[in-house]
Specification:
Layout: E1 9-10, H1 25-43, H2 49-64, H3 78-101, H4 107-131, H5 139-143, H6 150-178, H7 184-189, H8 194-227, H9 230-243, H10 250-270, H11 274-296
Helix pairs in contact: 1-2, 1-6, 2-6, 3-4, 4-8, 6-10, 6-11, 8-9, 8-11, 9-10
Length: about 300
Amino acid sequence: MVVRAGGKCATTNGAGLINGGTPLPRLKLLTSLICFVTFDLFVDTCDVNPVRNEFSNIHAAALNEIESPHDSQPFAPVWHTSVVLILLSFVVASSTGLHQLHRADHVNHRIFSYIAIATAEWLISAFIWLGCSRPGFTLRTLTGPMSSNWRPVLRDIGVALAFLIAANILLAIVGHLIRATPNQSLRNLLPHGRAEVAGYLFLALTAAICEEVIYRGYLQRQFTQWTKSASIGIILQSMIFGASHAYQGAGLMLTICLYGCLFGLLARWRGSLRPGMMAHFLQDGIGGLLLASYAVK
């Protein structure tokens, strides 16, 4: 679930990818530079010089990085991925129907929608984890490193914030150009009242974790290994990611598809889903609450 406000969406168009699956060095450098500058401004007010130095090393490494496949084989067989796609299609169809049928003043319907969608995403994530057959596979294989040490955590927060700012600036331009606006189905999803806000934030947290695991952790890497192209892997998962938000209308679906490309590049660059999960939660949680507050006014 990614909530996008009309006229506030933009992104790149895929031209930043070259054949063979490697993002253009200038795009990687630009992403690293944006993150570095934003984070540098943030730590100027804090006594976190060790983190600044570590983040500087990350930026320097981006200058010389040459991408190679992270895995030598897919996580699961074709039938397993096919079932995942079928389950996603069922969830999309069901949730689209729920959003379209529920009236904006139906509190119980919204809470039921939050619970139903969150449950479905956790079940699909569990199916992915249980069904992956590669020897030595663990959940950490999907998510990448997630150290609990304060330095990596603070670094990922900085990356997530910088990514969120840069991505939303770009997405706002595209959203304005294509005149993407929230439809009634999206408005029906927005929370009203404390109980709904609590349920909505739980849904946003679920989407941040499960959708990053499903689309960037699993599908992107499956497609990358099957096609031997990171670019194709990123594009395919982003198309499915955008289609899963079809209930928001064609314009927002397109911007979310492009947003999925950016999330895919972030996951590929960082080698971890944690920055994307953080950015995803902030986008859905804060963005949804702000949009709900604006809709009330």
